[in-house]
Write a structure and sequence with these properties.
The structure is a homodimer. Chain A has helices at about 1-10, 15-25, 35-45, 70-80, 85-90, 90-100, 105-120, 145-175, and strands spanning about 10-15, 50-55, 60-65. With about 180 residues, chain A is mainly alpha-helical. Chain A has a three-stranded antiparallel beta sheet with strand order 1-3-2. The two termini of chain A are about 40 Å apart. Chain A binds a DNA duplex (30 and 30 nucleotides) through α2 and α3.
Chain lengths: ~180, ~180
DNA sequence: ACAAGATATATCGATCCAGAGGTAAAGAAC
DNA sequence: GTTCTTTACCTCTGGATCGATATATCTTGT
């Protein structure tokens, strides 16, 4: 998704792509050559991108990569209907968010944000005692577990706040009028 | 790490372990049977845990798993000297945090927190223009990328705040006196 | 008596992915 | 002129992990 997302902004060669993906996702989990180049090839085989060999401006010749219409369609499909992990895994969610603007319909964007919003609403119970009973965060003995819960809560509230504003804004822009539940 | 960490609290059977790991890490990324049971076996072969077959209280017989001294040592080694990914990847970091209390020396705990603190201090530049120049977050066109940066910043500040308090507290408790740099 | 469902453990094949290694070109340093 | 570094690309291997599948036990409902 990151490869197609970046290429949708402008054509890039593999090395440049690698640096951009590394800056985005790699801040937390660097991308290896052995992952990037086979993935580029896979996307090329699938018709999602084309390759033009260009003389290297600094060194070895580059393969300029350009996204195709098929690639754009694929990217939009991934964004419009993300797999569960892209909603629940923060790392993946942030990657998705970085490219959500490529989904041009504000209604569709709002729907994706709503899925994340719904996920964040679910209360999270992380720890249980010996009998399987949930331990409320103020009764946790470990200060680290306490901190974990506290950070988790404040992060969630912060993102929920942003999501609500963003969703309202997108719906307003697309002429959506909220339905009152019967 | 999660398996040994939970077993360090009290002995558990695989199914219970699975639910606990799922609640902790699986909130974002569920654990599969095909991952858990081979890992348990690997840890058993490595002498990190022992297995006692007990009659199932509810259903099929259980294998009660107990951590050994070797397992405890291994867990402490992982906690004391975590691989880079456990510092930079939020998902992994939170797992580590959930078991950091098993590292009993407050000085050692503080050192791990300090590594995370150092990582969070590094400024994060996520996006670049066509010429490779960094784009400041207020000049990002996509509202999603703006939100991403904003959430990222506030999350970091929140965690940094907690880390600083916690580190100071741990150092105080271990009789550490901060050195003034020369 | 029987079926359904939760509990509980285990294996296997396919796939993903990182790390290590290899090639090559251009410019900089010595 | 030779080496070093950076840029740039690529492949192979092994380990990790997932999904599917299989098995067995006990409780509950019909």
């Amino acid at each position: 998704m990151a490869i197609l997302g970046f290429l949708r902004d402008f054509p890039l060669h593999g090395y440049d792509l690698k640096n951009r993906v590394a800056a985005l996702a790699g801040h937390v989990r660097p991308i290896a050559d052995g992952t990037l180049y086979p993935t580029i090839k896979k996307l090329e085989d699938a018709g999602c991108l084309t390759r033009r060999t260009a003389p290297g401006s600094v060194a070895a010749p580059r393969h300029m990569l350009e996204i195709t219409q098929d690639g754009t369609d694929q990217l939009r499909r991934w964004l419009r209907n993300p797999e569960p992990g892209f909603i629940t895994d923060d790392n993946k969610w942030y990657v998705l968010l970085a490219f959500l603007h490529h989904l041009e319909n504000p209604r569709e964007q709002a729907l994706v944000l709503a899925r994340r919003r719904e996920f964040l609403d679910k209360p999270t119970q992380l720890f249980f005692d010996g009998d399987g009973r949930p331990i409320p965060s103020d009764q946790l003995e470990s200060p680290f577990r306490k901190g974990l819960m506290q950070i988790h809560r404040s992060v969630n509230l912060n993102e929920i706040d942003w999501l609500d504003h963003q969703i309202a804004d997108l719906n307003r822009r697309s002429g959506y009028v909220a339905q009152r539940s019967p």
